[in-house]
Write a structure and sequence with these properties.
Chain lengths: ~140, ~120
């Protein structure tokens, strides 16, 4: 099993039709590399939630995925409004989502807490009117 | 139970995955909120929902959901059906409402993939 991989995916804000496409593609790639179980599930959920967030709130964003034999690193950067109150954004149920986002079934204020739950290491920084930066580490299964 | 038995209990139509009806399921999650599905649903479960957009299929694929059951007689648009076919997610449609669909499956032995969420002291009265 060759566990070395890196790729970046650009996501356009507002492209609701394709929401989730990139995350499904990333999951498929990692699965084909032989990654399974919790590591695969956590990576898939974290990238999916991040992709939905970029589409829902940002102008554009990039999801960088780097895989080593020990971890999956996700580096997610967007250009957009940023998050005014990170503490609130971390709270389950807090949301600033528009009707368009809620209509798709998202925007219930579970996204960022769910990303954190899937992470072994999680760092969220944001600058209002500039963008948001997420750094996530997911350890490989102990197998 | 198999998807074939699920289909029988719910008097459901198969929209996608006619060849996959022998798949075994034991658990389910019901919601019209994909945010909650992503936070709580478990691999191998049925997803019962009234949503029909392509994101239900992508969400199911991300979580390794066994099959999607559309409730309240919903028929998904072509793009959703195409995607379900492409990502290999069986999709059924039943005329029962979400409550009835959940109740009938539960009575037949399917349980929730989680029973409760949060801590016991997390609901403030």
């Amino acid at each position: 099993m060759n566990l070395n991989y890196e790729n970046s995916f650009t996501i356009e804000g507002g492209n609701f039709e394709d929401a989730g496409k990139i995350a499904v593609e990333i999951k498929k790639t990692l699965k084909n590399m032989g990654i399974t179980g919790d590591t695969l599930r956590k990576t898939a959920i974290a990238t999916y939630e991040s992709e939905i967030n970029i589409i829902s709130y940002a102008k554009r964003g990039v999801i960088n995925v780097r895989v080593t034999p020990e971890c999956v690193f996700l580096n997610i950067k967007d250009e957009g409004p940023g998050i005014e109150d990170i503490e609130m954004a971390m709270r389950e149920g807090y949301s600033t989502a528009s009707y368009r986002i809620r209509e798709l079934g998202f925007g219930a204020g579970m996204g960022i807490p769910n990303i954190k739950n899937c992470s072994d290491d999680f760092e969220l920084t944001s600058e209002v009117n500039k963008g948001t930066h997420l750094r996530i580490v997911i350890n490989m299964n102990n197998s | 139970m198999t998807l074939f038995e699920v289909m029988d209990i719910l008097d459901a139509k198969v929209l996608v995955g006619r060849e996959e009806l022998n798949v075994e399921v034991k658990t389910a999650f019901s919601a019209d909120l994909l945010s909650d599905v992503l936070a709580f649903a478990k691999a191998g479960s049925l997803l019962l929902t009234g949503l029909t957009n392509p994101q239900i299929v992508r969400t199911a694929s991300i979580l390794d959901i066994a099959a999607i059951i559309l409730v309240r007689g919903k028929i998904a648009p072509d793009e959703t059906l195409r995607l379900a076919d492409e990502l290999n997610i069986p999709m059924l449609s039943t005329r029962y409402i979400l409550f009835e669909t959940s109740g009938r499956l539960h009575a037949a032995g399917i349980v929730g993939c989680v029973e409760k969420v949060g801590r016991d002291d997390s609901v403030a009265l």
